[in-house]
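Hi U.,

Before I forget, here's the chain from the pilot set. I'm dumping it here mostly so it's searchable later in email.
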Amino acid sequence: MCGIAGCYQQADGQKLVDIMTDRIAHRGPDAAGVWSHADDRIAVQLGHRRLSIIDLSAAADQPLSKDGMALIYNGELYNYRELRAELMTCGTRFATESDTEVVLEAWRAWGPAALRRFRGMFAFALVDTNTGDLVLARDPFGIKPLYYLPRGSGTVFASELKALVAAAGSELRIEPGALVASMLYYWLPEQRCAIDGVRKLPGGSWARFRPDGTYSVQHYWRMADEAAEAAAGPAADLGAVIEDSVTAHLVSDVPVSSFLSGGLDSSIITVLAHQADSGIDAYTITFRPEDQRLEAMPDDAIYARRVAERFGIALHEIEISPDIVSLLPRMVDVLDEPVGDPAAINTLLMCEAARERGVKVVLSGMGADELFGGYRKHLACVLAGQYARLPRAARALTGAAVSGLPVSAGGHGLRYARWAKRFLTFAELPEEPRFRRSYTLYDPSELAALISPELAGHVGQVVAEHGEVYSDNSLQDEVNRMCLADARLFLPGLNLAYTDRASMAASVEVRVPFVDPVVARAAFSIGGSEKIRHRQGKVALKAAAERWLPREIVHRPKASFSAPLRAWVRGDLHDLIRDVLVGGELVQSGLIRREPLAQLIQDDQAGREDRSKQIWQLLTLELWYRRAQSLGVAA
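Structure:
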């Protein structure tokens, strides 16, 4: 796991690469390097920051230059040993024991066909000095980030957006549609970037930049195609597939640890990893009791302790009670784009604690909810389809009763009231808008009323983009259509994005065995009725898990990897909301309208409605907006 940055056909390329690699030094504290090449056709500079995990020797430092090709690479190939052996039978000679050299030689031997043979997470840049071409590539799901900025007759690229802003901030401007998307979702879909002109190389794709100034982007893997093929075939042996993926993800020359919340997904990963390597330990989080009360949060640490004790796993507990007022500006910088999910704080603090103990690699159960129908929104949308068939009078009575419920009382959060109110915002909508509204922060009309007319003009396009992704498949059941949409939108746009930025800010690599092409195909070989049944989610995964875990863990109530958001919004952040958000740049400029914002805050403070997510997102957006401008990015 590392950080990469580079320039192609840029007169100031050396200067820019130095700036960018310095800005992402946290991604690779173990080594740094720059490679440059210029001839009568091209000028190229590649910069690298290394976090040493496979082949710890200096021989494996990057950039790697060999026989007319140069490579910078961020990630891991879990099957690099098998690929290396195959290449050696064809006469390839290796100078290192690294997976980096396998990537380079695989491209030399197989070209773009190598990408479908790679099992891992990666983003890389490769220069062929014979053709003068630059190639950029990204893993199928987009686990590892890669931003690029077409500039002049070439491009500038890096692992994190902040590197591009540091290098070329005065040339850039904020993209208004991205501001709208971030308010709707509280994160940014992969199709959007917060900075106009900067693009995210899509997961499952590769780009070729040529000396004549042209470039093209091609997909080598599409989740919708894989899901359709899997759905048309026989059901996979899910248990065997998951066991194989966890084992593959343990390839490392440094010790590996695991996140353990006590929930199903992290318990599966941790227990299977510990069975394969008894030296694996685990990390979990706890919260202040007063925060848990207002959030109405279950005490997940109880279950994490039970799993650890049952299987003899060393467990490290970390209490999440940060000085949130001081931490929030740093978190905004870490996350790169306006991402309003406080769960990123948990990841950062856990990774920092792990790093203090010398840990470089941690496993996560992320991805199972998206692939196997594990989120409450999946079940809620299925139930909404049933609710919509109730008599109109019954629905009217239900709506009237729920609308008057408070969401908190006496310092305690009323979780079921929150859920009921949220359910009624989408319960009578058609399938695609129902799913969208189940996890976004506003109805389109609500959002348009909150922002300026200029920004409101982008709402329709942002909403339409969701519909295009949701309908771009041939799957036959609603549950799998929701899972596919999550795998293409929610997973890369939010969960993988914040996990990468927060973990790498602490110089820690997070691996996600569920986010794997083989696991994904297995997931979509299972019908939706085997994922959600009798008001239970992840039915197929739970059935597989019973061979590894006790029933009390497999069938425990669903919990979420969250933070005490409501306690922070109503307590620690009260003054910051008033001074920074209400009195901030977004309101002063008119981009956010003062009166709707004031009403939103009042409803939350009075306990009438739960608007904590909206307030948190707007506060983080304000801080991000100020920071972008301070770095020279135009509004």
